[in-house]
Amino acid sequence: MESLETRLARVEGMMSATLARLGEEAGKAPTPAPAPPRKGVLDVVQAFGPIVSGLLVALVAYVLTGSVTQILEERRVELSFGQAMQPLLVKLRDSKADRIEAEATALTLAVAFGKDAALPLLSELQTGTEVSVPAAEKALQALGLNHREPTCDVLARAVGNRTRLFSWTTQRTAARLLADLDCQHAVPTLAAYRAFLVSLAAQPPERALEEYRQAVRDEPPVSIGTLAELRAAIDQALRLLDRQRATRPSG
Questions:
Q1: Residues of the chain whose pLDDT is less than 70?
Q2: What is the pTM of this model?
């Protein structure tokens, strides 16, 4: 059997070895905890997606609500204007009205409703009577003095139309008014009309008339003499506009 001294020596050696091992482990630096992963763009979008979606929905709803409200308001104003214009338009068409009464009614329409009267007055040029058509022309002249741009736009559309909405007499009057009101932006429209008439003049008469009737309403009936008359009116309008542009002060 081992002696007591031997056993004590063995225990003392084991304790020394254990203490030495614990000291070595205590001297080592602790292993750091892994850093949390960095958040990417996708993580941010996923985090704030519901908030952004809610804001977008609110914004779209606000815009749509405002647009619908504006459209409804515009329609309400147009309806009220139409209802207010109706008595004047009926009076303008009255077969018993003379020239003075018709001119007074048309001018009242232009003054009372401003730029919104341009289309009804143009319609009067197209479908009016012998008394109301000259009255509508004078009213459009007066309207163009205070509301030149919208009046010029309406007249230029009439001249440029090629879907038989307007007769050649209406387009001739509109061309004359464009020159009277110094509608410079209508020069390309007038020049295109002139080019159209020039191309027709190079064709046989019957073919030229057939092509013209496909573009312009044949009321009153159009003839070769009509095309020449219309071309002269367009040339006169272009010359007048060119003269007005040349006499404008520079700058």
A1: 1-82, 250-251
A2: 0.69
80-102 confidence digits (pLDDT tens): 666 889 999 999 989 899 999 99
Q: Do 137 and 125 contact (CB within 8 A), yes or no?
A: yes
Print the SS3 string covering the chain: CCCHHHHHHHHHHHHHHHHHHHHHHHHCCCCCCCCCCCCCHHHHHHHHHHHHHHHHHHHHHHHHHHHHHHHHHHHHHHHHHHHHHHHHHHHHCCCCCCHHHHHHHHHHHHHHHHHHHHHHHHHHHHHCCCCHHHHHHHHHHHHHHHCHHHHHHHHHHHHHCCCCCCEHHHHHHHHHHHHHCCCHHHHHHHHHHHHHHHHHHCCCHHHHHHHHHCCCECCCCCCHHHHHHHHHHHHHHHHHHHHHHHCCCCC
